[in-house]
């Protein structure tokens, strides 16, 4: 496998731009990986993508020189092990609301003594031919991102951010707003206050902030960047498709 500079860019404070895939087709992965993103998330939480498809999509994304990441269905060490063995460069873990959950996420990605991941030979280790190289590279290359998606997670964030091996966090805006009683209402004062608390804690701990700008609007990405977010997911495959189709047909029929 070919690692990308994603982890070092996060450490340096540089901005990184990625996107989101929910359709389990390698052609979609190929098109999006060739579009200028630095990382692509294969979403297992809100899709019907199978692990067999994940392995193929990881290959396609990596071949384009882009970091393939996988959002797990939950904080599941067995699933983390399997996608990492398939060659994922890291994982996004949903609903991390405590330091214990953050530690579990880190440990699921890393081998002992840093973690608890079982050791096997698969694609990530070049089927055994590059096992030692993979072992040595893993701590310096693999990325673990905790999704902050609940009001309780925001309250616990200062402790979460102290967990060694956590590379960044990312706001899940829909779940966070729902947990605060305002699903999808991102301008609600409760949501704005939670984001301000998240930003303050992240800056204090000097851990990269992330946000999924789901609506494919570049102006929203620039606004997040101006606030110091450096791990930004832009859009999602089905919205890129639907917005493009709707805009074209509207233009043609007016």
* Largest sheet, strands/sense/barrel: 8 strands, parallel
CATH H level: which superfamily? Phosphoenolpyruvate-binding domains
Shape: globular
Quaternary organisation of the protein chains: single chain
Number of helices: 12
Structural notes for this entry:
- The chain has 254 residues and is of the alpha/beta class.
- It has a single domain, classed as Alpha-Beta Barrel (TIM Barrel).
- It is 46% helix and 15% strand.
- The protein contains twelve helices and eight strands.
- The chain has an eight-stranded parallel beta sheet.
- Helix 2 (26-33) links the parallel strand 1 (16-21) and strand 2 (39-43).
- Helix 4 (77-85) packs parallel to helix 5.
- The termini are far apart.
Please outline what is shown here.
This protein is of the alpha/beta class and 254 residues long. 46% of the residues lie in helices and 15% in strands.
